């Protein structure tokens, strides 16, 4: 089992440098105790309230590797403080990565309050996903009701199943806009037909088209 070691101290003081090295040594011993293969050791000196930390961003990138199954820390406050900590815990658990800490001498046990907040965050995220899917269906339904025929208008439909289409169908954006669909509905409709496109991209491409017609 591969594991990442993450160490953090809050300031650049020399005394903190000693603490950082001590964390690393203790976490290496923890990895040996549980027979983890160390994938990488990430250390940084930054505030726990700061979410934009280079080290923690590296951690979030590495845990996407399915071979990485554990993250080793001194204690949960090393991940972050306040809302930053909750957000990071949520990201880590979503990747099905286990947390081991020195303070627990093994797998991390969350406090009752943190567990409750994480459950709420997961529930909200799930309902956001459902709402997103409803918006896609709504956009597709409106488009078809107003005469949009995807089987005729979208090229190569189904040929790239499971893959995002790179091209942006400007002709279809114009056609749907003429049918009074909002940019959000147009984006949702095209995503439903396999195009990886955002509301902002739809709006930008439509504005580019309008400007080109005015020249």
- End-to-end gap: 61 Å
**Shape type:** elongated
Estimated share of beta-strand residues: 5-15%
Low-confidence segments, ≥5 residues, pLDDT <50?
155-166
Give an overview of the whole structure:
- Strands 2-1-3-4-5 form a five-stranded mixed sheet, sandwiched between helices.
- The chain is elongated, with a radius of gyration of 24 Å.
- The protein has 215 residues and is an alpha/beta fold.
- It has eight helices and five strands; from the N terminus they run βαβαβαββααααα.
- 53% of the residues lie in helices and 13% in strands.
- β4 (98-101) and β5 (106-107) form a beta hairpin.
- The longest helix has 34 residues, at 112-145.
- The model is unreliable at 155-166 (pLDDT under 50).
Give the SSE map.
Blueprint: E1 2-9, H1 14-33, E2 37-45, H2 54-62, E3 68-73, H3 82-94, E4 98-101, E5 106-107, H4 112-145, H5 150-153, H6 170-178, H7 183-192, H8 199-214
Parallel strand pairs: 1-2, 1-3, 3-4
Antiparallel strand pairs: 4-5
Summarize the structure.
The protein is an alpha/beta fold.
Offer a few descriptive terms:
215 residues; alpha/beta; 5-stranded mixed sheet; 8 helices; 53% helix
């Amino acid at each position: 089992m591969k594991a990442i070691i993450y160490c953090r101290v809050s300031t650049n003081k020399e005394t903190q440098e000693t603490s950082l090295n001590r964390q690393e040594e203790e976490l290496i011993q923890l990895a040996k105790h549980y027979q983890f293969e160390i994938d990488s050791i990430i250390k940084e000196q930054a505030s726990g309230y700061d979410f934009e930390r280079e080290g923690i961003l590296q951690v979030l990138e590495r845990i996407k590797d399915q071979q990485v199954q554990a993250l080793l820390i001194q204690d949960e406050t090393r991940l972050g403080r306040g809302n930053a900590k909750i957000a990071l815990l949520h990201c880590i658990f979503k990747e099905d990565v286990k947390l081991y800490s020195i303070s627990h001498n093994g797998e991390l046990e969350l406090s009752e309050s943190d567990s409750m907040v994480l459950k709420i965050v997961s529930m909200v995220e799930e309902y956001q996903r459902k709402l997103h899917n409803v918006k896609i269906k709504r956009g597709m339904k409106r488009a078809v009701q107003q005469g949009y025929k995807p089987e005729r208008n979208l090229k190569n439909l189904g040929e790239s199943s499971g893959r995002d289409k790179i091209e942006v169908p400007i002709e279809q954006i114009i056609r749907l806009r003429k049918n009074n669909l909002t940019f959000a509905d147009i984006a949702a409709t095209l995503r439903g037909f396999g195009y990886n496109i955002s509301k902002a991209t739809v709006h930008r491409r439509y504005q580019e088209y309008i400007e080109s017609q005015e020249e």
